[in-house]
Design goal:
This protein is an alpha+beta fold. The chain is built from 7 helices and 13 strands.
Length: about 260
C-alpha cells in the first residue's frame, strides 16, 4: 500500500470509529498506532472536533498506543477504567541461562504472522519481557509463543495491564551546540548533517515534536520537548547548559536507548 493510500485508509478507519462512538454511544478503540499514525489520528480528531479521547500504551511514554474514543455520557476517568477490558500483558519469564534482547522477542512474534498493529511496546527486563497486546489476541499469542523453540522452556502468562512491569528507561546523554533553538538546528546536530539536509528530513515528514508531525523548519524547541526522528530515534531536550563566547548554545539532550 502506497504512503498516501495508507494514510487515507487509516483516516477513513478513524473517522468510522468516531462516527460509531457518536451514534452508538459506546467506547471504541483502534489497533496500536506508531508515532506517524498517532499524529495523523490527532489531525483527524481536530478536524472532526472530537474531544472525548485519549491514547494508551500501558505506560507513560509508550512508543505505540491505541486510541480510545468514548461518548459524552461517559467521563474520561470511567473510560480509562475500561482499559483492562481492552489491553493485557503477555509476560515471558526466561530460564536463567537465557538472555534475549528486544529484537529476539519482536522477531519471534513476527514469525507467527501477527500484524504489528496488534501488539504494542515490548518491555524487556532482566528475567524476560512484558508485551502489551490487545486483549482479543492475548490467548492466541500466549499459546503460539509457547510453540516457538526459543520460548519453549519459558514461563508465559497473561496478566492485567495494571500489572505491567515498570522498567526504568535508559538514556544516553550527550550535548550539541546550536546557534538558536530552531528545529532544523537540532536535527542537523542530532543527525550530524548539513542544515540543508536537516530541512529535507523535516519536509520529508520524518520529524515529530511531542508526537506531533512538524514540517516547519524554524519551529522553536523548548526545554522538556521530545523530538523523534524516524530512523534515528527519540530524544529529550533536557537543558540549556551554557552559552559560548560567540553566543552559541550548548544544550544537553538525552536519547532513549
Amino acid at each position: 500500500m502506497l504512503k498516501n493510500d495508507r494514510k487515507q485508509y487509516q483516516g477513513e478507519k478513524i473517522s468510522d470509529k468516531i462516527e460509531f462512538c457518536r451514534t452508538r454511544n459506546k467506547i471504541v478503540h483502534t489497533d496500536f498506532l506508531d508515532i506517524a499514525s498517532k499524529s495523523e489520528a490527532q489531525e483527524i480528531l481536530f478536524k472532526e472536533k472530537f474531544q472525548n479521547y485519549f491514547f494508551e500504551g500501558g505506560k507513560e511514554g509508550a512508543d505505540r498506543n491505541i486510541l480510545v474514543l468514548y461518548p459524552d455520557k461517559i467521563s474520561e476517568e470511567m473510560a480509562r477504567k475500561n482499559i483492562e477490558n481492552i489491553l493485557e500483558v503477555i509476560r515471558i519469564k526466561l530460564p536463567k541461562e537465557l538472555k534475549y534482547e528486544h529484537r529476539d522477542y519482536l522477531s519471534g512474534i513476527m514469525k507467527l504472522g501477527l500484524k504489528r498493529e496488534k501488539f504494542g511496546d515490548i518491555i524487556v527486563n532482566e528475567n524476560g519481557a512484558d508485551i502489551v497486546v490487545l486483549k482479543e489476541i492475548a490467548e492466541y499469542l500466549k499459546n503460539s509463543l509457547q510453540e516457538l523453540t526459543r520460548f519453549r522452556k519459558s514461563e508465559i502468562d497473561i496478566v492485567s495491564i495494571l500489572g505491567l512491569q515498570n522498567v526504568e528507561t535508559i538514556f544516553e546523554e550527550f550535548t550539541i551546540i546550536v546557534s538558536s533553538l530552531r528545529l532544523d538546528n537540532f536535527v542537523a546536530e542530532i543527525v550530524k548533517c548539513s542544515r540543508t539536509r536537516a530541512e529535507e528530513i523535516i519536509t520529508e515528514q520524518r520529524v515529530y515534536l511531542n508526537s506531533i508531525l512538524v514540517e516547519k523548519v524554524s519551529k522553536k524547541i523548548n526545554v522538556g520537548d521530545v523530538i523523534t526522528i524516524r530512523g534515528k530515534g527519540k530524544f529529550i531536550f533536557n537543558e540549556i547548559q551554557r552559552e559560548t563566547r560567540n553566543d552559541r548554545l550548548v544544550l544537553g539532550l538525552k536519547k532513549y536507548i
